[in-house]
Write a structure and sequence with these properties.
Layout (H helix, E strand, L loop, with lengths): L3 E6 L6 H15 L5 E7 L4 H8 L4 E5 L16 H7 L3 E4 L2 H7 L3 H13 L3 E6 L3 H5 L3 H12 L11 E5 L13 H19 L1 H4 L3 E4 L5 H8 L6 E4 L6 H11 L1
Parallel strand pairs: 1-2, 1-8, 2-3, 3-4, 4-5, 5-6, 6-7
Helix pairs in contact: 1-2, 1-11, 5-7, 7-8, 10-11
């Protein structure tokens, strides 16, 4: 059985001075749900406060991005070594907003993901299609490309530190949600594509999150599907009660 993983993606929200309060609220609200892995991925500047607030609890702290080089002249970037030193355990890679606004490509996703995994961190690698791609019948093509390029040279052993998040780009921040059947269809495609890369047995162990407007009201139906192993949560992660409602659905 794959343990469900619910990860909050705070995006560019929550100041360092506000971080401890929200993390402690998440800890308290989710402490009874022992069958779910609970993660808060915060802005880099919030990580030290988040790690301190979550110390000794069941909540893991992650980052929203990482560079592939260990150090160097990369102004504004943050290395995996810095994240390890700060106490982070997870890193979101290739989120659709990174692709849309900051020039992220499948190739740079691959470099970042391999660097994150090599550092002993868990990479949450995002894939997903836009509305235009879905309507043009390119769903399979897009997912297979993102997987094949983004996970190039990722080994079966690496998959112990790999989570994949399916984000239908058209459902992020729009209030729209893929139906459970639509989501399951793509999650099954992702697992089948991963099986070609690392083998079917290994692919069965990798968790695939749904990342398109999962909320307390729809989480249980989504999480009941065979290949949906958790959620990458945006807006609902900023309210401990809402986030806990999603965690409860996966428990």
């Amino acid at each position: 059985m794959r343990k469900k993983i619910i990860a909050g993606n705070w995006k560019m929200n929550v100041k360092p001075s506000e971080t401890a309060t929200l993390v402690k609220e998440v800890v308290e609200a989710t402490k009874s749900f022992t069958n779910v892995e609970v993660v808060c991925c915060t802005p880099a500047i919030d990580i030290p406060a988040a790690v301190a607030a979550a110390a000794g609890t069941h909540v893991g702290i992650g980052a929203e991005n990482a560079h592939w080089e260990e150090k160097g002249a990369f102004t504004g970037e943050i290395s995996t070594g810095m994240l390890v030193d700060a106490g982070a355990k997870y890193v979101i890679i290739g989120h659709s907003e990174r692709r849309q606004y900051f020039g992220e490509t499948d190739e740079t996703v691959n470099k970042r993901a391999r660097a994150v995994i090599s550092a002993g961190l868990t990479a949450i690698v995002c894939v997903g299609e836009t509305l235009e791609e879905r309507e043009a019948g390119k769903l399979v093509e897009v997912i297979e490309r993102q997987m094949n390029v983004g996970l190039k040279d990722v080994t079966p052993a690496d998959c112990e530190r790999l989570v994949i998040a399916y984000e239908p780009v058209w459902a992020i921040g729009t209030g729209k949600t893929a139906t459970p059947d639509q989501a399951q269809e793509v999650h099954a495609l992702i697992r089948a594509t991963l099986a070609k890369l690392v083998g079917a047995d290994v692919a069965e162990t990798v968790r695939i999150q749904y990342g398109g407007s999962m909320k307390p009201g729809n989480a249980a139906e989504l999480l009941a599907k065979k290949d949906i192993d958790g959620g990458l949560i945006g807006g609902a992660a900023l309210k401990a009660a809402d986030f806990a409602g999603i965690v409860a659905a996966g428990n």
